[in-house]
Design goal:
The structure holds two protein chains of two kinds. Chain A is mainly alpha-helical. Chain A has one domain (about 20-305). Chain A contains 14 helices and three strands. Chain A has helices spanning about 25-35, 35-50, 60-80, 85-110, 110-115, 115-120, 125-155, 160-190, 195-210, 215-225, 230, 235-250, 270-300, 305; strands spanning about 15-20, 255, 260-265. Chain A has a two-stranded antiparallel sheet with strand order 2-3. In chain A, strand 2 and strand 3 (about 260-265) form a beta hairpin. Chain A is globular and about 70 Å long. By secondary structure, chain B is α/β, with parallel strands linked by helices. Chain B folds into two domains: about 5-235, P-loop containing nucleotide triphosphate hydrolases (Rossmann fold, 3-Layer(aba) Sandwich), CATH 3.40.50.300; about 255-365, Distorted Sandwich (Coagulation Factor XIII, Chain A, domain 1). Chain B has helices at about 25-30, 65-75, 105-115, 120-135, 150-160, 180-195, 205-210, 230-245, and strands at about 5-15, 35-50, 55-60, 80-85, 90, 165-170, 200-205, 215-220, 225-230, 260-265, 270-275, 280-285, 290-300, 305-310, 315-320, 320-330, 335-345, 355-365. In chain B, the strands form four sheets. Chain B has a six-stranded mixed beta sheet, sandwiched between helices. In chain B, strands 11, 13, 14, 15, 17 and 18 form a six-stranded mixed beta sheet that branches. In chain B, helix 3 (about 105-115) packs across helix 4 (about 120-135). Classes of the chains: A mainly alpha, B alpha/beta. Chains A and B meet through strand 1, helix 2 and helix 6 of A and strand 1, helix 1, helix 2, strand 4 and helix 3 of B. Strand 1 of chain A pairs antiparallel with strand 4 (about 80-85) of chain B, so a sheet runs across the interface.
């Protein structure tokens, strides 16, 4: 059932095989063949999300802006953390987290929400969570534009060298987010609690990632003392957030706006270390993504009797 | 492989949850309840469909015919076995299942089209045809949530049939919609047949299979009990309908008690002159005395139903043993042709078939006049 087969007469017609288990290569090939469906689903997801609201797509900037404002008020103004350019610091991490949270939140219940479709129309089911991730990426791109505007307004230059690494980091972020989204969407079919569990879990996960606080300034010393740094980085979001902060905040040690003392904001790793870590993470994320597809394949066989 | 659809040894097992526990609390508190029972919906089904063939799949509710169709479409994965399908496929399953009500008709055409597996470029080409067929030109840029249910179905149907698939799968959709819509459906299906497309038609209407299909498959509790010629399959379908007809009470006549033995004509021949009367006898055996309703059906060789008698009009009382029922056709309004005769006995309420016999006799009607067609209207024309 492919597009190629429609150029009737031209070229060999495709053969679609329906069997109990679809192998991983076939799964990937099917996804690639149906990329147009993925694109259409993403665009309809983006269109529908703010359909009917007066401000429309502007909300995808306003909502994170409010979050940004609240954290800024609480941590910089009330609690006086003394981080200079805290907005940039906060934004460069928050943007990563927003992508992850949006994607996972929506896709966790996507198969259940679209049960009517899943039970009636044939297409690779993992396209549904992937489309939710895709829509989150679109909103992420809009927020990136805002981040760039912030950098211009605050005359804050990013680390140009690190910027070249960003596609690698983003690829890792995308694959990891997609993997979580795919597995969660399938698990929710069997256990509806996952949806509520994820909402709580994501909050915990957020505070386990160095988005609001500075990793080096707040918890790194304690972690190192107890030899727990490696455990902290089991959370792939930690490294991704740190890489984004290192790229856009572009400072490892700054002067506190409060005491005038030097503050260690970010790890003093060399660019080479960041490259090695991020490439490693990308490989891990790719493997996790493929595993997620395999897990999804195992779980999707009984969707119909559970939906 | 030359077959458009090749179903080999396909089985599908469903888990039936007797008590659904889908939350963690329930699963922890009731680990042993919510046990599942396995239900074999399809049991080692194998068949092939070639290009240009229309295959009817017959079965009662729950026989597994829709499950089979969903497996062919790829909506369901078989538990074991493989289905190979060549070329593109469009399914008239639940029309409009892929629609997003928040989007406009136009967006939905593209979304649904790509969901069926067709490219954007291809849909661009046929977009105007789709809109014309659906007859909702004025509303194509309106959000689908404002559509009437008729518009909704028309648009979905238009997408599904205008994409020009190699294989068309139809599941009982012909049972919905108004008569004009049904006629449009049938018309389209015939068009596909002429274009040499393969069609898989699921229905429990023997009539549709007779008129549309070139071959039929009968499913019964997930097993394929007949596969082949439409007439033979229909005979087996009817026979099994008897075997599994639900008992409606202790006094109900169970299947097998009544049987149509033979149909004979006093003249020994079933050759009839048009317009003349005809008499034949139906010999029915019963294990005990029962009353029932007699039904007579006449079909053309193409499977078109010419006439079915009203069961309520012909009650019969069958003795234990053989009862001979005489059937008088005082004036046969038929023209030249060969007609198959089916006879049956219904229970007194007319809800269950007690006995049924397909093609028990073949009427050969000869007509000397110049009229053509099926029936003789015998019009009298006056000049006023």
């Amino acid at each position: 059932m492919s597009e190629e087969s429609l150029s009737l007469g031209a070229g060999a017609t495709s053969v679609r095989v329906v069997s109990a288990r679809v192998g991983l290569p076939t799964r990937l090939a099917n996804l690639w063949r149906r990329r147009e469906l993925l694109r259409n689903l993403i665009s309809s997801d983006v269109q529908i999300k703010y359909k009917g609201s007066a401000l429309g797509l502007l909300w995808s900037m306003l909502a994170p802006a409010f979050t940004l404002g609240i954290y800024y008020l609480v941590f910089s103004v009330f609690l006086k953390n003394g981080y200079p350019n805290y907005v940039i610091f906060l934004f460069s991490g928050l943007i990563v987290w927003n992508l992850f949270q949006n994607a996972v939140n929506v896709s966790t219940s996507i198969i259940v929400d679209r049960a009517g479709l899943v039970k009636k129309v044939s297409f690779p089911r993992e396209i549904l969570p992937l489309a939710s991730v895709g829509a989150a990426v679109v909103f992420w791109l809009i927020q990136m534009v805002v981040l760039v505007l912030f950098l211009v307004i605050f005359h804050h230059a990013p680390d140009w060298g690190m910027l070249l690494l960003l596609p690698v980091t983003f690829a890792a972020l995308y694959l990891f987010t997609a993997a979580v989204a795919i597995v969660m969407s399938a698990l929710t079919v069997y256990l509806r609690d996952i949806k509520h569990l994820m909402e709580v879990l994501l909050q915990l996960w957020f505070w386990l990632s160095p988005v609001v606080y500075s990793y080096s300034n707040s918890i790194a010393p304690a972690l190192h003392r107890h030899g727990l740094a490696a455990i902290y980085f089991i959370n792939p979001m930690s490294l991704i957030v740190l890489t984004f902060q290192r790229t856009f905040y572009n400072a490892t040690t700054v002067t506190s706006t409060l005491s005038g003392q030097p503050l260690h904001m970010l790890p003093t790793w060399s660019v080479g270390t960041f490259v090695a870590l991020n490439v490693g993470l990308l490989i891990v994320a790719a493997v996790v993504f493929l595993l997620a597809l395999v897990v999804f394949g195992r779980l999707e066989g009984n969707f119909e009797s559970e939906l | 492989m030359d077959h458009v659809i090749e179903v080999s040894d396909v089985s599908k097992t469903f888990k039936i949850h007797h008590e659904r526990h889908q939350s963690v609390k329930d699963r922890v508190l009731h680990p042993r309840s919510g046990r599942t029972e396995l239900f074999q919906a399809l049991d080692h089904i194998s068949f092939t469909v070639d290009a240009g063939e229309t295959v009817g799949i017959l079965g009662h509710n729950g026989s597994g015919k829709s499950t089979l169709l969903k497996c062919v479409c790829g909506v369901l994965q078989p538990t074991s076995g493989v289905i190979r399908q060549r070329g593109s496929l469009a399914a008239l399953l639940e029309l409009g299942a892929g629609f997003q009500v928040e989007l406009s008709g136009r967006d939905n055409v593209y979304l649904y089209g790509t969901m069926l597996g067709f490219s954007r470029k291809y849909i661009d080409r046929i977009f105007d045809d789709i809109v014309a067929f659906s007859e909702i030109e004025h509303f194509i840029d309106t959000q689908v949530k404002f559509y009437s249910s008729g518009m909704y179905v028309r648009l979905a149907f238009a997408v599904a049939v205008n994409v020009d698939p190699d294989v068309l799968v139809v599941d009982e959709v012909l049972a919905v919609g108004d008569e004009r819509f049904q006629a449009k459906c049938i018309d389209r299906i015939k068009g596909f047949q002429e274009d040499g497309k393969a069609i898989l038609l699921v229905t429990h209407s023997a009539e549709q299979v007779r008129t549309l299909a070139s071959r039929a498959i009968v499913l019964e509790s997930g097993k394929m009990i007949a596969h082949g010629d439409v007439g033979d399959s229909l005979k087996i379908f009817r026979d099994h309908l008897l075997g599994t007809a639900p008992a409606t009470g202790s006094t109900a006549t169970s299947a097998g008690e009544v049987h149509v033995d033979s149909v004979t004509s006093p003249s020994g021949t079933f050759d009839v002159r048009a317009g003349a009367g005809f008499h034949f006898d139906v010999h029915v055996s019963a294990t005990r005395a029962v009353s029932g309703l007699f039904v007579l059906e006449l079909h053309t060789r193409d499977g078109v139903l010419v006439s079915r008698s009203d069961p309520q009009a012909n009650p019969v009382d069958l003795r234990a043993g053989v009862t001979s029922i005489g059937v008088d056709l005082p004036h046969l309004p038929l023209l030249d042709g060969i007609f198959d005769v089916n006879v049956g006995i219904y229970d007194p309420r007319g809800s269950n078939i007690l006995a049924w016999a397909e093609k028990v006799a073949t009427l050969q009607v000869t007509y000397g006049g110049r009229e053509s067609g099926l029936v003789d209207l015998a019009p009298s024309v006056h000049q006023n």
